[in-house]
């Protein structure tokens, strides 16, 4: 199977074709082998326009959603980023090519260990991984220039994550609303000043943890 061709088509049709223009995100998604982050039995579906199961009732997100999350962080390359819910490690690997350092948290050891091994194989040497409740964030490594969460919280984002953003930092997180799940970008504009903007509708697994909400 020509994965390079499938990857090129994925980017052109699902990402660029839907209006995403961030050149760094486009380039890294065109380059990173997404099929390595799914079960071998599903590798032929890795570049399709949908989420896929990765075990433990978790998923690898639809490529377009991943691209929107990355582009919405407005990354320049020098950032320290926290990722909550690393899953298979696909978003983690993409982030590692776009920022200075990634702190990734996954609560399920059965996902975190193979994801770490794959990241090592791909020489993602700027990634630190912790098996923990991601709703607490990573206080010892804070503050972060950006935080991205791949699981839906309640109507409000976990307070520890907001506290761990630098002023000017961005949090990308799906939240439950009256109209269903929506992906939000929340920007910290001051000590207690946060600007929230909806990006698009989405469908994520639940954020499990002390501050995950209902």
Task: Give the key terms.
alpha/beta; seven-stranded mixed beta sheet; 214 residues; 6 helices
Task: Describe what you observe in this structure.
There is one protein chain. The chain has 214 residues and is α/β, with parallel strands linked by helices. Helix content is 27%, strand content 29%. It has a domain of 147 residues: Vaccinia Virus protein VP39 (Rossmann fold, 3-Layer(aba) Sandwich). Strands 5-4-3-6-7-8-9 form a seven-stranded mixed sheet. Strand 7 and strand 8 form a beta hairpin. Helix 1 runs antiparallel to helix 2. It is globular. The mean pLDDT is 95.
What overall geometry do the principal axes of the alpha carbons give? globular
CATH architecture of the domain at 55-201: 3-Layer(aba) Sandwich
Q: Describe the biggest sheet?
A: 7 strands, mixed
> What portion of residues belong to β-strands?
25-35%
Number of DSSP E strands? 9
Fraction of helical residues: 25-40%
Compute the gyration radius: what is it?
16 Å
Provide the CATH top-level class of the domain at 55-201: Alpha Beta
How are the strands ordered across the major sheet?
5-4-3-6-7-8-9
Total helix count? 6
Q: By CATH's scheme, which homologous superfamily of the domain at 55-201 applies?
A: Vaccinia Virus protein VP39
> Which spans have pLDDT < 50 for at least 5 consecutive residues?
none
Average pLDDT across residues?
95
How does the helix and strand content classify structurally? alpha/beta
Give me the CATH fold name of the domain at 55-201: Rossmann fold
- State the end-to-end CA separation: 43 Å
Would you list the SSEs in sequence order as H and E? HHEEHEHEHEEHEEE
